[in-house]
Specification:
The complex is a heterodimer of chains A (264) and B (208).
Chain A lengths: L4 E9 L2 E6 L2 E8 H10 L4 E6 L11 H8 L6 E4 L5 H9 L4 E4 L1 H5 L2 H10 L4 E9 L10 E5 L4 E6 H11 L3 E6 L11 H10 L4 E4 L5 H8 L6 E4 L1 H4 L9 H10 L10
Parallel strand pairs in A: 1-4, 1-12, 4-5, 5-6, 6-7, 7-10, 10-11, 11-12
Antiparallel strand pairs in A: 1-2, 2-3, 7-8, 8-9
Helix pairs in contact in A: 1-2, 6-7
Chain B lengths: L1 E4 L6 H10 L4 E4 L2 H5 L4 E3 L5 H10 L3 H10 L4 E4 L1 H4 L4 E2 L4 E2 L6 E5 L8 E9 L12 E8 L1 E5 L5 E7 L1 E9 L2 E4 L7 H13 L10
Parallel strand pairs in B: 1-2, 1-3, 3-4, 4-13, 5-7
Antiparallel strand pairs in B: 5-6, 7-10, 8-9, 8-11, 11-12, 12-13
Classes of the chains: A alpha/beta (264), B alpha/beta (208).
Chain lengths: 264, 208
Amino acid sequence: MLTKRLIACFDVVNGRVTKAQQFQDNIDVAPAEELAQQLYADQIDEIVFYDIKASAEKRKIDLDTVRRVAHHVFVPFTVGGGIRDVDDMFEVLKAGAEKISVDSMAVRNPEIIRDGAAAFGRQCVVLSTQVKHVGIRDGIPSGYEVFIDGARLATGLDALDWVRRGEDLGAGEIVVNSIDRDGTASGYDLDITRAVADAVNVPVIASGGAGTVDHIADGLTAGGAQAAIISSILYSPRLDRNVGVRELKTGLAERAVPMRPYLD
Amino acid sequence: MISVVDYRAGNAPSVLFALEHLGLPARLVDTADEVAHADRIILPGVGAARATIDSLVEQDLVGALSDRVQGDGVPFLGICIGLQVLFDHSEEGDTDCLGWVPGQVRRFPDTGRVPQIGWNRVRFTREHPLTADAPADGHFYFVNSYYGAPADPADALGLTDYTVEFCSVVARANVVATQFHAEKSGPLGLSLLRAFAAWEPAASEPAC
């Protein structure tokens, strides 16, 4: 059977992985290339790399760092940040990524999803969403609103409306990234994760808040997600104790979550 | 020297990086002339069937690939979309494909999430030099909405379950192909690439 995935998330600034809390106060962790090698050796299932400043700084993605990471990672590698059109996507694929993540740019120009899916296949386009609980109100029937630009700008879009539209346009995966939970190690927002998983038929990835094995297991079971993005638990200096992939997989297997077995 | 076919809809660099990591001599090729002189060919892919075939036609590679693989019988490995385009026809964009392996490419039923994305188990149906170092079943990384259904079950070297049981590895004479991304399947995938680099299809087997 298809197993669930553990995805390590890199928020990259100047070639280095950083760790934020609720999308702010990024602190330095390690060079992206070095951390990628270490996690690949530790049998992470997948790596996603966000050039978190590219979009706000209106510049192209840091292809050199993408390329350096791709040279060491022989598991799937998704890249996002500052992708504006199919030509940008093509450059990132040529740098060694398999999948492209679009987020703020897709809100500004949803056709980028359709264009990317047409050029490279639906499976190549990951729609990442920054969602925040704002309560049910006019235009936000789910109570969750989509934000962009590092959680700074509210869009007025309802989270469920947006992910359904993203799927229709051709997104092959949806990341549900909770702004409220980001970097807090207090668990995924299971309500919105489950609501998105029920709303679309493409794989859904829980993101924001994993601090324990139980949080991850909850996201992959009660949250209905097919994959879990983790970062703090692996390497945040803010946590007293970081946990390796092997221990996480053992813990998930004990909780009956199907995972790719750790190879000795 | 392994020639990795580089076309617009492909992810040739990922495959090249993996081969470099293994210390295997490899290069990217994107012209008919280079393909005509290739002695071992990988056709990678992440794209859609239509975009892939269009790219190959546009770069004038279809004839050269057919001559070299079907005519001369050089070892060939297709990956992901590089497996699907070997068949006669794909439901994706109603696309006529290369027709080297008799069969159709079908979409997964909507009873499961489509695309399939993640690590899934491959059961090998028989012994083959490509999988000599692989466990009888192991996990490999898949990203696909469509799957190849060979007309002759003997062409299926590996089987995987995802709402349906489907052919995840094709082996027919000098042609092998994996639906999963061997270059992105960790150590097991890399061992398969290493085996392909050393593979000498039996002289007794007719060219595909």
